[in-house]
Amino acid sequence: MGKDVIIACDFSSKDETLRFLDRFTGRKPFVKIGMELFYSAGPEIVREIKKRGHRIFLDLKLHDIPNTVKKAMAALSSLDVDICNLHAAGGSAMMKAAAEGLTRADGTRPLLIAVTQLTSIDQLTLENELLIREPLDEVVMEYAQNAASSGLDGVVCSPLEARKVHDSCGAGFLTVTPGIRFADGSSDDQKRIMTPSQAKEEGCDYIVVGRAITAAADPAAAYERCCSEFIDAED
Ligand code: C5P
Description:
By secondary structure, this protein is of the alpha/beta class. Helix content is 42%, strand content 16%. The mean pLDDT is 96.
């Protein structure tokens, strides 16, 4: 898979999500389904969106003992999603078990990426609550390397970290980056943001875009703008 724009469908109901997707009459967007939608609409929403021809990043961030994660991943793999994720904090045994669980009988599997540290965790929380004394950016890179050596395909990270992740884990290790805004748009609650063209320059592989598209007056036009900046523009 090459570079792509993934729309974060942060809606709470199936109807709202499908109505939103009905607006895209040109290229079929890659869609991110998170916990809110999956837990309220269930696996059926994944089947329905797949049936409509979209690719799906199922953002459920699994974190449990290896055997449980392996079995949960096998269930998700049967939904035929394209990207799944988990917390690298679950350790390398859990990450390897997850990849095994995702692998289908024919040896293929969805891409599997890791969350290193949540962006809601700052240095103080890391030290005082998680009792991790190292600098946050070093912890992020260490976790990314653990994910790579456990056979995962990439990480979710800030576009500002993408270059460093590629340098330390290899150019083929995927960086999937939220925190994307248009130059003339609002930053909402995101603190470290980049435009789609800056993300392209930084070498991000996939950008995850929510409100810049979902809250736009014309979401299909905002999506096309993202694609033309991130995918279609000349290097
Ligand atoms: O609306 P916005 O573009 O900020 O949405 C970004 C999406 O990416 C949301 O679904 C959010 O939960 C997700 N995300 C994030 N930052 C992370 C990980 C995921 O914004 N570190």
